[in-house]
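2 proteins. here.
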Amino acid sequence: MKFNNKGFSLVELLGVIVILGILMSMGVIAYGRYLEKAKKRDYETMEQSTYAAAQNYLMDYDSVFEGTQTIRIIDDLVAGNYLEPLMDPVTKESKQCDGTVTVTRAAGSGGGLDDLKYRIKINCKKYKGDVTFP
C-alpha cells in the first residue's frame, strides 16, 4: 500500500500560522506608534502656525509694549484672517480647539520683534498644548 505524502503536515501548518500571527501583531504595534507620532506632529504644526500668525499680527499692528499682552486666537488672529479657525486634526471637527497666545517682552529690551517670547496654549478635545517660542 502506497501513501500520498505530497501535502503539509498539521505541525507545519501550525508553525506557519504562528509565524504569521507574530508578524501581524508586530505590524499592528508599529502602526499604532506611527499614528500616535502623526497626531503629535499635527498638533505641533498647529502650534507653529499659530506662532507664525501671531508674529504676522504683531508686525502688521507694530505693537510696541513692555510686559505681557494676551491675544485671543479666535477673536484676533482668526477675525483678522491671520489664522484659520483651529480644527482638531484628530477628530476633524471644527470649533473643537481654542487657545491663547501670550506675548511677553522683557523690560529694558531693545523693543524689536525679535525680543518677544510667544507662549502658545492650545486646548482641543483630546489635547492640551503649552509651548513657548523661541
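next one coming up
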Amino acid sequence: METVSTFSRNDRKLRGTTGAVTVLHTHNRQLDYHPHVHLVMPSAAFDNKWRLWRNKDGGYLFDHKALARVFRAKMLAGIKQAGLKLPRQYPEKWVVDCKAVGSGQKALVYLGRYLYRGVLPEKNIVANRDGNVTFRYQNSETRKMETRTLSGVAFLRLILQHILPKGYRRARNFGFLHPNSKLIPLVQLIKRVVLPPPQPRPVIRCKCCGGVMKIVRTRIKIFTHRLRTLASNREMAT
C-alpha cells in the first residue's frame, strides 16, 4: 500500500491520499505456494490540505512497470531492515497487473469468496482412496477443469502452508477506506454520501402471551463462570 500511496501523492492529476482494500492470497489455482496481494482502489484521491476530491478519468491509473520496480525495491529494503536474509535467488523482475474494474463491485465479490470458502472448498475434493487425495481446479489458461492427485501427507502439507501465522490478517483497508480514518467524514461530505438510518432492534415477544418483552438485565455466562471458579478456589484455600 505504501507504493500506491506514493504514486497517488506524486501523480499530477491525483496529488492526494487514496484508499484501498487489500486481500492476501498465498496460493495459485493448483494450491502451490504463490503469495500475492490483490488491491482494489478508486481512481481518485483526497487532498486533505485543500479539501479537494480529485478523479483520474480513464482506465489507466499507474504504470504497472514502474509499480513493479518501486514495490520490489521497497519490499527488499523492508526485508533487510527487519534483519532477515534474502533468498539466494529471487526474480529480477516482479509482476504487477494494473487494470480497470469498473465500479469495483465485481472485483470485491470475487475476492470475498476467497475469504470465506477457505483454501480449497470441500466440493472440489473428488476422491480420497488408497492414501491419495484428488482435487479439481480450473486451469487459468484453458479455463477447463483439471485434477491433481497427491499423497495424504503431501496434500496436508499443501493445505497447512497456507495457514497464516498468528496476528496476520488476510484482508486490510488503507487510506480513507480504513474504518478509523479521520478523512471518512470529509469524504462523505464531499461525495454527499447519505447513510441509511439505523434499523430498530426487533422486539422480543413472550412465548406465552405474545406481549412485548423488555430487557432489564444481561449476564455474560463466561464471566460469571470465572467468578464462581475463583470464589470456589478461594473457599478451598481458606
